[in-house]
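Structure ticket #2291
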Amino acid sequence: MKTVGIVCEYNPFHQGHRWQIAEAKHLSGANTVICAMSGNFTQRGEAAVLEKGIRTRAALEGGAELVAEIPVIYAMSGAQSFARAGIRILLSAGVDAVSCGSECCDPEKLKRVAGLLREEPAAYKVALTAGLEQGLGFAAARQSAVSKALGPDAEVLRNPNDILAVEYLIALQEYGADIPLYLVPRTAAHDTAAESAKEIRKALTEGQFPETLESPDIVREALRDGYGMPDPDFFTTLLYANAERTLSGTVPEDGEGLLNRVLKSMAAYHPFAELLQANVTKRYPAARVRRLLMNLALGITEEERKACEWSKGPAYLRILGAGSDEVLAAVGRRSSLPLVVRSSDLEGLSEAAVRTFEAEARTTDLYLLSLPGHKLFSHGYEYTRKIEKREIRKINVN
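Resolution: structure written out below.
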């Protein structure tokens, strides 16, 4: 079994994702795709359009053979920590290669940028500090510093997929993994309204169902039956309910006075979207503000992340779905992390692993409560969740 890994969110899964999976197999010569996927909350700091079980089944129907979960405390973090967690999960599953989308599709350019960011030479650090002191956000200051060292190569840091590709390369180097990264072209041709997850989310937010949606039946059925688009007002309520907790702790994505700015703005702005717009500046990009707001709403603190030993990376390999028992067994033999298929697999694992799962269980309950009519809700759902299989077609509401 030759495997290629993909770090993904599939929010929601569509035809472009199916094409990427096929291309990853083609480029790598692999016969098995293993996905490390965000759970119910994504790297942009948003509640996923569809519950992770439904998205897992869509991925399996779309060509993946196994889907493992990026725990929420990693899924909802900056590009660097998100990428490191995804790569750690894939490496623990024993993948032979990794594949990702790329706007530039220039591996040498991406490697040069990754090498600079990993080495952080003195001149780069001076330029980065200067940019931050000028009031630039971290991402803009970093790009400016890389531009001074590598010239036009720094342009890759303007592209979302290239940014993640750079972080994947850095993570592979840090973990000492000598495996290739295969780049799948990401261009406007692959981002039509019918194929772009962003366009699908936008249409759903505006109360429209994209009739031309090219996705597996499970996605189309779930969206039509009202299993998608969690209620944003629910998270606004959680945000205000948990605001006082920040006085005795710290929230992920804070820094440079962002949390104080958010707390002050809460006196004048109420809806989640208004709070977001009120706090987005050159220094504080939208994704970072959104992650801070959602971490605050969910009660995720730096103290909780430390208890999960967040800096070490995921403590277990959580299996959300598998196309066959043979693939699951093969990954179980290869895995360098403890496999968690059911909650009873946590017995005997580290305190950090248990705390990580507890954070997942708590935030899943909150996510399910945000669904229209509380569809799928069952308190402690994570503790009774069953692994998804490709042949299961109907939505499991039990």
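Closing remark: Residues 188-194, 392-398 have pLDDT under 50 and may be disordered.
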